[in-house]
Each structure stands twice: as structure tokens, then as C-alpha cells.
Structure to design on (167 residues):
């Protein structure tokens, strides 16, 4: 549940700044445990990673790489939801390994120019129908003017998005 942001509307059980991220060995052992208990079902796996902020874990990209190298034939889909705070280089590498990436806007923390430039570039890398990129626009009551600007940017660049009410 570690997250590099501390959004005012996010409940503490979904994020904190103190949880120690799992190392690569723990992540791979956890996957092997899940796989060994479920492989008899013969189903393709659909894996969704969300946070806290998964990209804040230094072992996350190596883990997804390991999954891709060792279980690609068993995994139908890997989806990642992130706050978009990692580098474009990081997301470019990740885009080669996953089916979909979703960014979520968090106006308290994002650098809008950087966030939307990454969004535009990733939308070019994750091309439908095989892959996809999406932006979850957080409908923050204090940020209504910016939300309209975000929608224009996304629509102008043909980027899939949804507006998600923040409670």
C-alpha cells in the first residue's frame, strides 16, 4: 500500500508512506504459490496491479519482466493502474510487458504538462485493440476548471478516459 502521493481523499487503508515494498524474491515466490495452487484449472490469468503506487516499488518492473519471461503463455492480460509519477522511460519499458496501463490524475501532486506528455506518448505505444492506455480523471471538487482542460487534452489526442467521482 506504499504510495508516493498522499491525496486528501484517499483513505489510509489504501495508501501510506511507510509500508516496505516487497522484494523481487517475495513477489516471485508469491506468484509461484498462486500459480501452483490454481494451474490445475487450466485458465488464462488476468492480473491487475494497483496501489498504493505499484511503480514506487523498485522490484515491480523486474517482477513484471520475470512474469513475462516465465509465464507469458499462461497470462492472458496484465493491467497496471498508476498515478503516472514514474518516468516515461519506465512506462515505455512497462508498455512492452503489459496489456494495459491506466493513469489516474491527482491534481494535488501531478505536474500537468509532464503527466499529459507521458499520456500522449504512451497512448502511441499502447495501441488498441492489442493493448490500451486509459486515463482516470479524478473528479476532485476543487479542480473542476482543470478537469475540463484535462478532457480537452485527452479528446484532442484521442486518449481513452473516464471521469471518476471522488468521495
Amino acid at each position: 500500500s506504499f504510495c508516493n502521493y498522499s491525496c486528501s481523499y484517499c483513505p489510509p487503508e489504501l495508501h501510506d508512506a511507510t509500508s516496505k515494498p516487497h522484494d523481487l524474491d517475495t513477489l516471485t515466490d508469491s506468484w509461484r504459490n498462486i500459480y501452483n495452487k490454481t494451474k490445475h484449472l487450466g485458465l488464462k490469468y488476468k492480473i491487475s496491479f494497483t496501489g498504493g503506487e505499484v511503480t514506487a516499488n523498485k522490484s515491480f518492473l523486474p517482477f513484471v519482466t520475470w512474469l513475462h519471461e516465465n509465464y507469458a503463455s499462461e497470462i492472458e492480460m496484465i493491467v497496471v493502474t498508476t498515478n503516472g509519477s514514474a518516468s516515461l522511460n519506465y512506462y515505455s519499458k512497462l508498455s512492452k510487458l503489459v496489456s494495459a496501463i491506466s493513469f489516474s490524475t491527482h491534481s494535488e501532486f501531478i505536474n500537468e504538462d509532464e503527466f499529459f506528455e507521458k499520456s500522449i506518448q504512451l497512448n502511441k505505444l499502447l495501441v488498441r485493440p492489442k493493448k490500451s492506455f486509459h486515463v482516470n480523471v479524478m473528479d476532485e471538487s476543487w479542480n473542476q476548471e482543470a478537469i475540463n482542460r484535462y478532457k480537452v487534452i485527452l479528446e484532442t489526442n484521442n486518449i481513452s478516459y473516464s471521469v471518476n467521482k471522488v468521495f
Observations:
- Helices lie at 24-38, 60-71, 88-95, 112-125, 144-156.
